[in-house]
Model the fold of this input.
Amino acid sequence: MVKLFNTLTRSKEPVEGSSLRIYSCGPTVYNYAHIGNFRSYLFADVLNRTLKLAGYQVEHAMNLTDVDDKTINGAIELTKKEPGKYADLKSALAAYTAPYTEAFFADLKTLNVIKFDHHPRATDYIPAMLDLVERLIQNGVAYEQDGSVYYRIGEKKDYGKLSRVDLEKNKTGTRYNTDEYDKDDVRDFVLWKAESKDGVHWHSAHGDGRPGWHLECSAMIHEIFKGGIDIHTGGVDLIFPHHENEIAQSEAGYGAEFVKHWVHCEHLLVDNRKMSKSAGNFYTLRDLLQQGKRPEVIRYFLLSAHYSQKVNFTAEALHQAEAGVEKFYSLWQRLTRVKKNSAQADAEFAKTSAEARAKFTAELCDDLNTPRALAVVHEYIRAANAFADARQDVVAEADADEMMQTLRHFDKVLGLLDLIPKTGVSGDLQALLDERNAARAAKDFKRADELRDQLLKAGYKILDTKTGSHLEKV
Ligand SMILES: [Zn+2]
Done:
Protein backbone atom coordinates (compact mmCIF):
# COMPACT_ATOMS: atom_id res chain seq x y z
CA MET A 1 0.00 0.00 0.00
CA VAL A 2 1.24 3.48 -0.86
CA LYS A 3 1.64 6.05 1.92
CA LEU A 4 1.71 9.76 1.18
CA PHE A 5 2.35 12.82 3.28
CA ASN A 6 -0.95 14.67 3.46
CA THR A 7 -0.59 18.45 3.69
CA LEU A 8 -4.08 18.64 5.23
CA THR A 9 -3.22 16.51 8.27
CA ARG A 10 0.57 17.08 8.18
CA SER A 11 1.11 13.34 8.46
CA LYS A 12 1.94 10.32 6.34
CA GLU A 13 -1.21 8.35 5.56
CA PRO A 14 -2.03 5.18 3.62
CA VAL A 15 -3.85 5.60 0.32
CA GLU A 16 -7.01 3.52 0.80
CA GLY A 17 -9.04 1.93 -1.98
CA SER A 18 -8.07 0.24 -5.21
CA SER A 19 -9.19 2.71 -7.81
CA LEU A 20 -8.08 6.31 -7.41
CA ARG A 21 -9.14 9.65 -8.84
CA ILE A 22 -6.29 12.15 -9.04
CA TYR A 23 -6.12 15.77 -10.09
CA SER A 24 -2.91 17.71 -10.61
CA CYS A 25 -2.80 21.44 -11.17
CA GLY A 26 -1.21 21.90 -14.55
CA PRO A 27 0.25 24.82 -16.44
CA THR A 28 -1.09 28.26 -17.13
CA VAL A 29 -0.49 28.37 -20.86
CA TYR A 30 0.84 31.93 -21.06
CA ASN A 31 4.47 30.96 -21.63
CA TYR A 32 6.73 27.92 -22.05
CA ALA A 33 6.83 25.95 -18.82
CA HIS A 34 10.13 26.25 -16.95
CA ILE A 35 12.21 23.60 -15.28
CA GLY A 36 10.63 24.38 -11.88
CA ASN A 37 7.17 23.73 -13.34
CA PHE A 38 8.42 20.46 -14.76
CA ARG A 39 9.47 19.34 -11.33
CA SER A 40 5.82 19.46 -10.33
CA TYR A 41 4.60 17.67 -13.50
CA LEU A 42 7.24 14.95 -13.17
CA PHE A 43 6.25 14.52 -9.56
CA ALA A 44 2.69 13.88 -10.79
CA ASP A 45 4.15 11.35 -13.24
CA VAL A 46 6.11 9.54 -10.50
CA LEU A 47 2.97 9.43 -8.36
CA ASN A 48 0.95 8.04 -11.27
CA ARG A 49 3.56 5.40 -12.16
CA THR A 50 4.14 4.39 -8.52
CA LEU A 51 0.44 3.90 -7.83
CA LYS A 52 0.14 1.74 -10.94
CA LEU A 53 3.26 -0.23 -9.97
CA ALA A 54 1.68 -0.81 -6.55
CA GLY A 55 -1.43 -2.20 -8.24
CA TYR A 56 -3.91 0.68 -7.98
CA GLN A 57 -6.22 1.66 -10.83
CA VAL A 58 -5.62 5.31 -11.58
CA GLU A 59 -7.68 7.96 -13.34
CA HIS A 60 -5.59 11.10 -13.50
CA ALA A 61 -6.40 14.60 -14.74
CA MET A 62 -4.06 17.54 -15.26
CA ASN A 63 -5.71 20.80 -16.23
CA LEU A 64 -4.64 23.65 -18.46
CA THR A 65 -5.43 27.18 -17.33
CA ASP A 66 -6.20 29.00 -20.54
CA VAL A 67 -8.10 31.93 -19.05
CA ASP A 68 -6.78 33.95 -16.11
CA ASP A 69 -5.07 37.30 -15.48
CA LYS A 70 -1.80 36.21 -17.13
CA THR A 71 -3.23 34.69 -20.32
CA ILE A 72 -5.57 37.64 -20.78
CA ASN A 73 -2.65 40.05 -20.49
CA GLY A 74 -0.88 38.03 -23.17
CA ALA A 75 -3.94 38.23 -25.43
CA ILE A 76 -4.12 42.00 -24.96
CA GLU A 77 -0.45 42.30 -25.97
CA LEU A 78 -1.15 40.18 -29.03
CA THR A 79 -3.95 42.46 -30.21
CA LYS A 80 -1.61 45.45 -29.79
CA LYS A 81 1.04 43.74 -31.93
CA GLU A 82 -1.42 42.73 -34.64
CA PRO A 83 -4.26 45.27 -34.53
CA GLY A 84 -7.40 44.25 -36.42
CA LYS A 85 -6.36 40.61 -36.77
CA TYR A 86 -8.72 39.15 -34.14
CA ALA A 87 -12.50 39.44 -34.13
CA ASP A 88 -12.49 39.88 -30.35
CA LEU A 89 -10.28 39.41 -27.34
CA LYS A 90 -11.60 35.88 -26.80
CA SER A 91 -10.26 34.76 -30.16
CA ALA A 92 -6.97 36.54 -29.44
CA LEU A 93 -6.86 34.56 -26.18
CA ALA A 94 -7.31 31.29 -28.07
CA ALA A 95 -4.58 32.28 -30.54
CA TYR A 96 -2.27 33.33 -27.71
CA THR A 97 -2.62 30.13 -25.66
CA ALA A 98 -2.60 27.59 -28.54
CA PRO A 99 1.17 27.43 -29.19
CA TYR A 100 1.97 27.19 -25.46
CA THR A 101 -0.57 24.41 -25.05
CA GLU A 102 1.01 22.50 -27.90
CA ALA A 103 4.49 23.11 -26.49
CA PHE A 104 3.40 21.83 -23.10
CA PHE A 105 2.25 18.49 -24.52
CA ALA A 106 5.42 18.20 -26.60
CA ASP A 107 7.56 18.88 -23.51
CA LEU A 108 5.75 16.23 -21.47
CA LYS A 109 6.48 13.76 -24.24
CA THR A 110 10.14 14.82 -24.35
CA LEU A 111 10.44 14.00 -20.65
CA ASN A 112 8.52 10.73 -21.07
CA VAL A 113 5.66 11.69 -18.78
CA ILE A 114 2.93 9.06 -19.16
CA LYS A 115 -0.17 10.50 -20.78
CA PHE A 116 -2.74 11.55 -18.21
CA ASP A 117 -6.36 10.50 -18.77
CA HIS A 118 -7.78 14.01 -18.90
CA HIS A 119 -6.38 17.41 -19.82
CA PRO A 120 -9.35 19.72 -19.25
CA ARG A 121 -9.05 23.28 -20.52
CA ALA A 122 -10.78 25.90 -18.42
CA THR A 123 -12.54 27.57 -21.36
CA ASP A 124 -14.34 24.28 -22.14
CA TYR A 125 -15.99 24.20 -18.69
CA ILE A 126 -17.60 27.64 -18.32
CA PRO A 127 -21.17 26.26 -17.77
CA ALA A 128 -19.93 24.02 -14.94
CA MET A 129 -18.20 27.03 -13.38
CA LEU A 130 -21.34 29.14 -13.55
CA ASP A 131 -23.31 26.28 -12.02
CA LEU A 132 -20.91 26.26 -9.07
CA VAL A 133 -21.24 30.05 -8.68
CA GLU A 134 -25.02 29.66 -8.41
CA ARG A 135 -24.73 26.84 -5.87
CA LEU A 136 -22.46 29.01 -3.73
CA ILE A 137 -24.87 31.95 -3.85
CA GLN A 138 -27.79 29.66 -2.98
CA ASN A 139 -25.84 28.16 -0.10
CA GLY A 140 -25.22 31.63 1.29
CA VAL A 141 -21.43 31.75 0.97
CA ALA A 142 -21.16 33.95 -2.13
CA TYR A 143 -22.42 37.42 -2.95
CA GLU A 144 -22.59 39.66 -5.97
CA GLN A 145 -21.15 43.12 -6.11
CA ASP A 146 -20.95 45.30 -9.23
CA GLY A 147 -21.42 42.33 -11.54
CA SER A 148 -18.69 40.24 -9.87
CA VAL A 149 -19.32 37.38 -7.48
CA TYR A 150 -17.18 36.83 -4.38
CA TYR A 151 -16.75 34.06 -1.84
CA ARG A 152 -17.36 35.24 1.71
CA ILE A 153 -14.69 33.30 3.57
CA GLY A 154 -16.13 34.19 6.99
CA GLU A 155 -19.09 31.91 6.11
CA LYS A 156 -16.96 28.78 6.03
CA LYS A 157 -16.02 27.73 9.54
CA ASP A 158 -12.98 25.70 8.60
CA TYR A 159 -11.59 28.10 5.99
CA GLY A 160 -7.82 27.90 6.28
CA LYS A 161 -7.65 24.24 7.28
CA LEU A 162 -5.14 23.33 4.54
CA SER A 163 -2.78 26.30 4.68
CA ARG A 164 -3.44 27.07 8.34
CA VAL A 165 -3.46 30.76 7.56
CA ASP A 166 -3.92 33.15 10.41
CA LEU A 167 -7.55 34.17 10.07
CA GLU A 168 -6.98 36.98 12.52
CA LYS A 169 -5.46 38.72 9.55
CA ASN A 170 -8.70 38.31 7.62
CA LYS A 171 -9.74 41.75 6.45
CA THR A 172 -13.47 41.14 6.84
CA GLY A 173 -15.62 42.72 4.17
CA THR A 174 -12.70 43.44 1.85
CA ARG A 175 -12.18 41.61 -1.40
CA TYR A 176 -9.66 40.51 -3.95
CA ASN A 177 -10.23 40.76 -7.66
CA THR A 178 -6.89 39.26 -8.66
CA ASP A 179 -6.15 35.54 -8.89
CA GLU A 180 -3.03 35.67 -6.74
CA TYR A 181 -2.45 37.33 -3.38
CA ASP A 182 -0.43 36.98 -0.26
CA LYS A 183 -0.88 34.72 2.73
CA ASP A 184 -0.68 37.68 5.09
CA ASP A 185 -3.67 39.27 3.47
CA VAL A 186 -6.66 36.95 3.66
CA ARG A 187 -9.81 38.34 2.04
CA ASP A 188 -12.93 37.36 0.17
CA PHE A 189 -11.90 36.15 -3.26
CA VAL A 190 -13.44 36.51 -6.66
CA LEU A 191 -15.39 33.60 -8.21
CA TRP A 192 -16.75 35.39 -11.22
CA LYS A 193 -15.25 38.61 -12.45
CA ALA A 194 -17.26 41.27 -14.30
CA GLU A 195 -15.82 42.09 -17.71
CA SER A 196 -16.77 44.69 -20.27
CA LYS A 197 -17.91 43.70 -23.76
CA ASP A 198 -14.35 44.39 -24.95
CA GLY A 199 -12.82 42.00 -22.44
CA VAL A 200 -12.70 38.19 -22.47
CA HIS A 201 -16.22 37.39 -21.35
CA TRP A 202 -19.07 34.92 -21.28
CA HIS A 203 -22.73 35.71 -20.51
CA SER A 204 -24.05 34.95 -17.05
CA ALA A 205 -26.95 35.80 -14.75
CA HIS A 206 -24.66 38.43 -13.26
CA GLY A 207 -23.81 40.04 -16.56
CA ASP A 208 -20.78 39.52 -18.77
CA GLY A 209 -17.74 38.16 -17.04
CA ARG A 210 -15.19 35.41 -16.73
CA PRO A 211 -14.21 32.85 -14.09
CA GLY A 212 -11.63 33.41 -11.38
CA TRP A 213 -8.72 30.98 -11.52
CA HIS A 214 -9.60 29.11 -8.29
CA LEU A 215 -13.14 28.40 -9.45
CA GLU A 216 -11.86 26.65 -12.57
CA CYS A 217 -10.22 23.69 -10.85
CA SER A 218 -13.16 23.07 -8.48
CA ALA A 219 -15.68 22.99 -11.33
CA MET A 220 -13.53 20.83 -13.62
CA ILE A 221 -12.84 18.27 -10.90
CA HIS A 222 -16.57 17.95 -10.19
CA GLU A 223 -17.43 17.70 -13.86
CA ILE A 224 -14.80 15.04 -14.63
CA PHE A 225 -15.00 12.90 -11.52
CA LYS A 226 -18.63 13.55 -10.53
CA GLY A 227 -17.67 13.90 -6.90
CA GLY A 228 -14.68 14.21 -4.61
CA ILE A 229 -11.23 12.85 -5.41
CA ASP A 230 -8.59 10.78 -3.66
CA ILE A 231 -5.46 12.80 -4.37
CA HIS A 232 -4.85 16.40 -5.42
CA THR A 233 -1.33 17.55 -6.26
CA GLY A 234 0.43 20.80 -7.03
CA GLY A 235 3.45 22.91 -6.12
CA VAL A 236 3.75 24.26 -2.55
CA ASP A 237 3.11 27.76 -3.86
CA LEU A 238 -0.47 26.67 -4.65
CA ILE A 239 -1.40 25.74 -1.05
CA PHE A 240 -2.54 29.30 -0.44
CA PRO A 241 -4.68 30.77 -1.79
CA HIS A 242 -5.39 28.43 -4.73
CA HIS A 243 -5.97 25.11 -2.98
CA GLU A 244 -7.47 26.66 0.13
CA ASN A 245 -10.02 28.34 -2.10
CA GLU A 246 -10.68 25.16 -4.08
CA ILE A 247 -11.60 23.42 -0.80
CA ALA A 248 -13.87 26.30 0.23
CA GLN A 249 -15.70 26.32 -3.11
CA SER A 250 -16.06 22.58 -3.58
CA GLU A 251 -17.14 21.72 -0.05
CA ALA A 252 -19.62 24.59 0.22
CA GLY A 253 -20.89 24.12 -3.34
CA TYR A 254 -21.13 20.36 -3.70
CA GLY A 255 -21.57 19.48 -0.05
CA ALA A 256 -19.20 16.53 0.25
CA GLU A 257 -15.59 15.88 1.18
CA PHE A 258 -13.52 17.28 -1.65
CA VAL A 259 -10.03 15.72 -1.44
CA LYS A 260 -8.64 12.95 0.78
CA HIS A 261 -4.91 13.50 0.20
CA TRP A 262 -3.29 16.81 -0.61
CA VAL A 263 0.26 16.28 -1.81
CA HIS A 264 2.57 19.20 -2.57
CA CYS A 265 5.89 19.35 -4.31
CA GLU A 266 8.64 21.74 -3.18
CA HIS A 267 10.42 24.39 -5.23
CA LEU A 268 13.37 24.00 -7.54
CA LEU A 269 16.28 26.38 -7.04
CA VAL A 270 18.86 27.22 -9.67
CA ASP A 271 22.37 27.60 -8.22
CA ASN A 272 20.78 28.00 -4.81
CA ARG A 273 18.60 30.90 -5.86
CA LYS A 274 14.97 31.23 -6.73
CA MET A 275 14.58 31.10 -10.47
CA SER A 276 13.62 34.40 -12.03
CA LYS A 277 13.94 36.10 -15.37
CA SER A 278 15.63 39.12 -13.82
CA ALA A 279 18.29 36.97 -12.11
CA GLY A 280 19.12 35.41 -15.49
CA ASN A 281 18.68 31.87 -14.12
CA PHE A 282 15.33 31.14 -15.72
CA TYR A 283 15.27 28.05 -17.94
CA THR A 284 12.54 26.48 -19.98
CA LEU A 285 12.97 22.85 -21.02
CA ARG A 286 13.67 24.12 -24.52
CA ASP A 287 16.50 26.35 -23.27
CA LEU A 288 18.14 23.36 -21.63
CA LEU A 289 17.81 21.12 -24.67
CA GLN A 290 19.32 23.86 -26.77
CA GLN A 291 22.28 23.95 -24.42
CA GLY A 292 22.76 20.27 -25.24
CA LYS A 293 21.26 18.86 -22.03
CA ARG A 294 19.62 15.48 -22.56
CA PRO A 295 15.97 14.85 -21.62
CA GLU A 296 16.77 11.59 -19.83
CA VAL A 297 19.36 13.39 -17.68
CA ILE A 298 16.89 16.15 -16.79
CA ARG A 299 14.28 13.54 -15.95
CA TYR A 300 16.73 11.62 -13.75
CA PHE A 301 17.84 14.82 -12.04
CA LEU A 302 14.25 15.79 -11.23
CA LEU A 303 13.67 12.33 -9.74
CA SER A 304 16.82 12.36 -7.67
CA ALA A 305 15.49 14.50 -4.82
CA HIS A 306 12.48 13.74 -2.65
CA TYR A 307 9.49 15.78 -3.77
CA SER A 308 9.08 17.36 -0.33
CA GLN A 309 12.61 18.79 -0.38
CA LYS A 310 13.89 21.76 -2.33
CA VAL A 311 16.10 20.63 -5.18
CA ASN A 312 19.07 22.63 -6.41
CA PHE A 313 19.68 22.68 -10.15
CA THR A 314 23.43 23.03 -10.72
CA ALA A 315 25.96 21.91 -13.32
CA GLU A 316 27.40 19.50 -10.75
CA ALA A 317 23.99 17.97 -10.00
CA LEU A 318 23.36 17.46 -13.71
CA HIS A 319 26.74 15.73 -14.04
CA GLN A 320 25.79 13.36 -11.27
CA ALA A 321 22.46 12.69 -12.95
CA GLU A 322 24.23 12.00 -16.21
CA ALA A 323 26.55 9.51 -14.52
CA GLY A 324 23.51 7.79 -12.99
CA VAL A 325 21.76 7.52 -16.34
CA GLU A 326 24.89 6.19 -18.03
CA LYS A 327 25.29 3.43 -15.46
CA PHE A 328 21.69 2.36 -16.05
CA TYR A 329 22.03 2.43 -19.83
CA SER A 330 25.38 0.70 -19.91
CA LEU A 331 24.16 -2.25 -17.84
CA TRP A 332 21.15 -2.50 -20.14
CA GLN A 333 23.36 -2.49 -23.20
CA ARG A 334 25.78 -4.94 -21.67
CA LEU A 335 22.87 -7.33 -21.16
CA THR A 336 21.89 -7.10 -24.80
CA ARG A 337 25.47 -8.04 -25.72
CA VAL A 338 26.51 -10.75 -23.27
CA LYS A 339 26.90 -14.27 -24.62
CA LYS A 340 24.21 -16.53 -23.29
CA ASN A 341 24.24 -20.20 -22.52
CA SER A 342 21.57 -22.59 -21.37
CA ALA A 343 23.01 -23.14 -17.90
CA GLN A 344 20.69 -23.23 -14.91
CA ALA A 345 19.69 -19.91 -13.40
CA ASP A 346 21.79 -18.82 -10.44
CA ALA A 347 19.38 -19.16 -7.53
CA GLU A 348 21.34 -16.80 -5.31
CA PHE A 349 21.34 -14.07 -7.94
CA ALA A 350 17.65 -14.58 -8.70
CA LYS A 351 17.03 -13.89 -5.02
CA THR A 352 19.15 -10.72 -5.17
CA SER A 353 17.11 -9.54 -8.17
CA ALA A 354 13.74 -10.28 -6.60
CA GLU A 355 14.77 -8.49 -3.41
CA ALA A 356 15.96 -5.45 -5.37
CA ARG A 357 12.62 -5.23 -7.20
CA ALA A 358 10.66 -5.52 -3.97
CA LYS A 359 12.85 -2.98 -2.19
CA PHE A 360 12.58 -0.49 -5.06
CA THR A 361 8.78 -0.70 -4.95
CA ALA A 362 8.73 -0.46 -1.16
CA GLU A 363 10.84 2.72 -1.16
CA LEU A 364 8.52 4.37 -3.65
CA CYS A 365 5.42 3.24 -1.77
CA ASP A 366 6.86 5.01 1.26
CA ASP A 367 5.85 8.54 0.27
CA LEU A 368 7.52 8.29 -3.17
CA ASN A 369 11.03 8.12 -1.85
CA THR A 370 12.83 8.44 -5.18
CA PRO A 371 16.35 9.05 -3.76
CA ARG A 372 16.20 5.82 -1.76
CA ALA A 373 14.69 3.97 -4.74
CA LEU A 374 17.59 5.18 -6.90
CA ALA A 375 20.04 3.95 -4.28
CA VAL A 376 18.47 0.48 -4.62
CA VAL A 377 18.85 0.70 -8.41
CA HIS A 378 22.55 1.53 -8.18
CA GLU A 379 23.24 -1.14 -5.62
CA TYR A 380 21.66 -3.60 -8.02
CA ILE A 381 23.62 -2.27 -11.00
CA ARG A 382 26.85 -2.89 -9.06
CA ALA A 383 25.78 -6.42 -8.18
CA ALA A 384 24.74 -7.23 -11.76
CA ASN A 385 27.97 -5.89 -13.21
CA ALA A 386 29.99 -7.91 -10.69
CA PHE A 387 27.99 -11.00 -11.67
CA ALA A 388 28.75 -10.47 -15.38
CA ASP A 389 32.41 -9.61 -14.62
CA ALA A 390 32.87 -12.87 -12.71
CA ARG A 391 31.57 -14.81 -15.74
CA GLN A 392 33.43 -12.75 -18.33
CA ASP A 393 30.17 -11.81 -20.00
CA VAL A 394 29.05 -15.39 -20.59
CA VAL A 395 25.90 -15.87 -18.51
CA ALA A 396 22.92 -18.17 -18.45
CA GLU A 397 20.07 -16.87 -20.55
CA ALA A 398 17.83 -17.18 -17.50
CA ASP A 399 20.15 -14.90 -15.51
CA ALA A 400 20.31 -12.30 -18.28
CA ASP A 401 16.50 -12.36 -18.50
CA GLU A 402 16.21 -11.91 -14.76
CA MET A 403 18.50 -8.86 -14.87
CA MET A 404 16.64 -7.29 -17.77
CA GLN A 405 13.34 -7.93 -16.09
CA THR A 406 14.67 -6.17 -12.99
CA LEU A 407 15.82 -3.12 -14.95
CA ARG A 408 12.43 -3.02 -16.68
CA HIS A 409 10.76 -3.13 -13.29
CA PHE A 410 12.78 -0.10 -12.15
CA ASP A 411 12.02 1.59 -15.42
CA LYS A 412 8.27 1.44 -14.84
CA VAL A 413 8.82 4.49 -12.67
CA LEU A 414 12.20 5.79 -13.82
CA GLY A 415 11.03 5.96 -17.45
CA LEU A 416 14.58 6.06 -18.85
CA LEU A 417 14.66 3.23 -21.38
CA ASP A 418 12.23 5.02 -23.71
CA LEU A 419 14.68 7.92 -23.76
CA ILE A 420 17.83 6.03 -24.79
CA PRO A 421 19.26 8.37 -27.44
CA LYS A 422 17.93 7.23 -30.79
CA THR A 423 20.23 9.28 -32.99
CA GLY A 424 22.03 6.55 -34.89
CA VAL A 425 20.93 4.16 -32.11
CA SER A 426 23.49 3.63 -29.39
CA GLY A 427 26.87 2.14 -30.36
CA ASP A 428 26.27 -1.27 -28.81
CA LEU A 429 22.98 -1.84 -30.59
CA GLN A 430 24.46 -0.76 -33.90
CA ALA A 431 27.31 -3.26 -33.38
CA LEU A 432 24.73 -6.03 -32.87
CA LEU A 433 22.89 -5.00 -36.01
CA ASP A 434 26.13 -4.99 -38.01
CA GLU A 435 27.03 -8.43 -36.70
CA ARG A 436 23.57 -9.74 -37.61
CA ASN A 437 23.83 -8.33 -41.13
CA ALA A 438 27.26 -9.94 -41.55
CA ALA A 439 25.87 -13.29 -40.33
CA ARG A 440 23.00 -13.04 -42.79
CA ALA A 441 25.35 -12.19 -45.65
CA ALA A 442 27.40 -15.27 -44.69
CA LYS A 443 24.12 -17.29 -44.66
CA ASP A 444 24.62 -18.07 -40.95
CA PHE A 445 20.89 -17.71 -40.33
CA LYS A 446 21.00 -19.31 -36.92
CA ARG A 447 23.37 -16.63 -35.64
CA ALA A 448 21.47 -13.91 -37.49
CA ASP A 449 18.25 -15.00 -35.77
CA GLU A 450 19.92 -15.09 -32.35
CA LEU A 451 21.09 -11.53 -32.83
CA ARG A 452 17.66 -10.47 -34.05
CA ASP A 453 16.16 -11.92 -30.86
CA GLN A 454 18.74 -10.14 -28.72
CA LEU A 455 17.82 -6.84 -30.32
CA LEU A 456 14.17 -7.59 -29.82
CA LYS A 457 14.79 -8.22 -26.13
CA ALA A 458 16.52 -4.85 -25.96
CA GLY A 459 13.33 -3.35 -27.35
CA TYR A 460 14.26 -2.97 -31.03
CA LYS A 461 13.03 -4.70 -34.12
CA ILE A 462 14.94 -4.82 -37.38
CA LEU A 463 13.45 -3.26 -40.48
CA ASP A 464 15.07 -4.57 -43.66
CA THR A 465 14.52 -2.09 -46.47
CA LYS A 466 16.02 -1.50 -49.89
CA THR A 467 18.33 1.10 -48.43
CA GLY A 468 19.56 -1.21 -45.67
CA SER A 469 18.60 -2.44 -42.22
CA HIS A 470 17.36 -0.11 -39.50
CA LEU A 471 16.37 -0.51 -35.90
CA GLU A 472 13.00 0.64 -34.71
CA LYS A 473 11.73 0.79 -31.14
CA VAL A 474 9.11 -1.88 -30.46
ZN1 LIG B 1 -5.64 24.31 -9.79
Observations:
- The longest helix spans residues 315-337.
